[in-house]
Each structure stands twice: as C-alpha cells, then as structure tokens.
C-alpha cells in the first residue's frame, strides 16, 4: 500500500496532472485530501492500473476523501504560458476549489510554484508513493479522458475516443493529413520526419 501522508499531523493535499504530453485538449489537475489514517490497497499511479479500475477507484476516492477538486487549463492558455506553467496553474486551480484548505501540499514531479503561503514538497514519482497523489492522478486522468471522448464526434478522424489526445500513430497521421483543430496545442509543432522516426 502507498503511504498515507508525507508530513505528519497536517491536513495534506496531494496534487497531480494529466495530459501534459498530449497534442490536443486541456491539461487537467486534481487535488485530494484523505483522512490522516486513510488506507486503501487498490489506489495506485493511474498509469499502472486499468481504465476500468481507474473509474471504479474514482467513485471510492470521491466518497472517502475529506476533500477533492479538479482544475483545468485549456489548449489556448497552454500555448500562451507553456505546458509546465499550465500544469502548475491547473494544480493551483484544483487547490482553489477544495472545500477544506490544506496546510501542506505534496506534488508529483520536481516543479511547482508557491501556492499562497502553504508549504509544499515536490516528490519525483510521487504518484507511486503517496495515496493522495495517486488519487489525484486518477481523478485528473479520468475527468480529462471523459472530456476528450466528448470532443471525439466533432473531429472523429483524430481518434480522441481512444488516444485521448496523446500522440499515437493515428493521431499524428491525422494531424499531418488534416492539420490542427481548434483544440490542438499550436505551440506543439509536428515534424513528420522526426515523428516517423519515433515510431520505428
């Protein structure tokens, strides 16, 4: 089981994002606060569990967390401020929407900007170490996936119902053939030669 809390005797929120490596769509982030003694053997990094398990766990997380929230930054804002800043902004937005204010924050990765006056700790691979970060990764991933599926009928040739905006062969081929849509990140430039090499 993953660890429950990083800083003892604190109201600790775990944060993570989803969609950072996508060619299209927004970046989503989530923040989750669990009870200090919370235990769950199933919650893990969203990348390590199946889609079916992610959605099953989302219901459990939303029911059993003290507080949770999701923040979104769209592709236009990503183009303006870059994906790193957008990912951090999405995390800040998720923290803004928590019904309880944490007094400590743990974040997956090694980059973050100070949120208000609340102390924080960045943790590389934190989503495979701490329950709250793993839970945040599950919420961010599932809510972003849901949104990309709703966009699919508008531009079905890009395969967003399956790839969720990530650079799969089908998605890349569609961009090279049809160009970028209004949901694509225009700052993400495709070079067909480089992309073809990456899939060999």
CATH class: Alpha Beta
Task: Tell me which CATH architecture applies here.
Answer: 2-Layer Sandwich
Task: Write the H/E string, N to C.
Answer: EEHEHHEEHHHH
CATH topology: the name is Nucleotidyltransferase, domain 5
Fraction of residues in H or I helices: 25-40%
Number of domains: 1
Instruction: Report the count of strand segments.
Output: 5
Give the helix tally: 7
Task: Describe the structure concisely.
The chain contains seven helices and five strands, in the order ββαβααββαααα. The chain is α/β, with parallel strands linked by helices.
List the helices and strands and how they pair.
Layout: E1 12-18, E2 27-33, H1 51-64, E3 67-73, H2 75-81, H3 83-96, E4 104-108, E5 120-123, H4 131-151, H5 160-163, H6 169-178, H7 192-198
Parallel strand pairs: 1-4, 4-5
Antiparallel strand pairs: 1-2, 2-3
How would you describe the overall organization of this protein?
The protein has one domain: Ribonuclease H-like superfamily/Ribonuclease H (Nucleotidyltransferase, domain 5), CATH 3.30.420. The protein has 200 residues and is α/β, with parallel strands linked by helices. The protein is built from seven helices and five strands, in the order E-E-H-E-H-H-E-E-H-H-H-H. It has a five-stranded mixed sheet with strand order 3-2-1-4-5. Helix 1 (51-64) crosses helix 4 (131-151) and helix 2 packs across helix 3. Helices cover 38% and strands 15% of the residues. A hairpin with an 8-residue loop joins strand 1 and strand 2 (27-33).
Characteristics of this structure?
single chain; 200 residues; alpha/beta; Nucleotidyltransferase, domain 5; 7 helices; 15% strand; disordered C terminus
